[in-house]
Amino acid sequence: MPALPEGVPVPPDGALPDRVRAVADGAARTRDAALGVYVHVPFCSVRCGYCDFNTYTAAELGGGASQVEYAATALREVDLAARVLDDAGLARPVETVFFGGGTPTMLPPGHLARILGGVRDAWGLAQGAEVTTEANPDSVTPASLAALADAGFTRVSFGMQSAVPHVLATLERTHDPARVPDVVRWARDAGLEVSLDLIYGTPGESLDDWRASLEAVVAAGVDHVSAYALVVEPGTKMHAQVRRGLLALPDEDDQATKYELADEFLAAAGLTWYEVSNWARDDARACRHNLAYWRGHDWWGIGPGAHSYVGAPDGTGVRWWNVKHPRRYAALLAEGRSPGAGRELLTADEAHLERVMLGVRLREGLDLAVLTDAGRHAVVGLVARGLLDGVAAVRGRAVLTLRGRLLADAVVRELTA
């Protein structure tokens, strides 16, 4: 797992800096951006070889960090967050809640419902709020999904990753791919919207394997799909296997071909890209929680290793992150202290880079007025090279073409040079 970034200390009470407070030095302001809540549930039945997320198996934990105690611990941070945002004048109803991990559905539905209830009690949920949980296909039942829907969850995102057994085996995923159509049907019967998450570029995955996964997704008839290129991070088991020559990574051309095939398949099935790695049947089916990240809205991250962000009137903001280990996280909250490990106050240049980097990934694109003079000058060359849409540029937006999506990082570098 990667180390946390460096930063300045978070006050023991978690208080926000003056630059982001709605009331500071006697001056009042409003924060128009939406408020979201992310809940990190750090438990998995096994750790997949490619994963570098902050997750733990049951055998690795204890001493106040068990699954049984987790809901109570997370609610302590919800209480702290409610005090901090209220003191800063930034409390308002929550637009989106997202339970990620790990495998949130390793907790019983009642525990997830209890945490969601704490969020609702702290801030209230906005009308039509989106409430999502991630889940593995082998971590749910018809009854558990119905219980989540009854508790107020509106959406579930299943980690399908692949429909091909040998690809799942390389990723060390434990579910049977034949179960995916069943869990999709169970979730829909419960009244939940459904997304499927895919990974392409696994060592040993052929183009036919990837096509089979896409065919399975289309056959499932879901209204949202995420597809991410596999990134093998240092420190993971898979990274060690690659370094020793036990696994061979595909080249960039292979990953580009698979992305293009995904876009073709999903578009033919009526799903349109709205972010480089995400497709939805229509705007109403897009993941509103993730859109809030990309649009620079506010969120509070609950849980060990979770990150949070609150923006400032000048376009900058503050980001902070919690201690990583669940035992330390639980101990700090038990003492009445913030679990924050560090925070950073974004400079104007850093905030500008993030706005461009995130905004250009969206189908709606980026307002050219956001760019510097040099960035706007670069648009002409990017259009000429087929990386930005020319018609959109004339209308004042930087919108990636299909080729531009494959080279999004290079586009950002030119727009921010």
Automatic annotation (TrEMBL):
Keyword hit for Iron-sulfur: yes
GO BP: any one term: porphyrin-containing compound biosynthetic process
Gene Ontology cellular component list: cytoplasm
Family annotation (PROSITE patterns): RADICAL_SAM (PS51918)
Leader sequence segment: none
Gene Ontology MF, one: metal ion binding
Domain (Radical SAM core) ranges: 29-275
InterPro entries, A to Z: Aldolase_TIM, Coproporphyrinogen-III_oxidase, Elp3/MiaA/NifB-like_rSAM, HemW-like, rSAM, rSAM_sf
Similarity section: Belongs to the anaerobic coproporphyrinogen-III oxidase family. HemW subfamily.
Physiological role: Probably acts as a heme chaperone, transferring heme to an unknown acceptor. Binds one molecule of heme per monomer, possibly covalently. Binds 1 [4Fe-4S] cluster. The cluster is coordinated with 3 cysteines and an exchangeable S-adenosyl-L-methionine.
Protein name, entry field: Heme chaperone HemW
Organism: Isoptericola variabilis (strain 225)
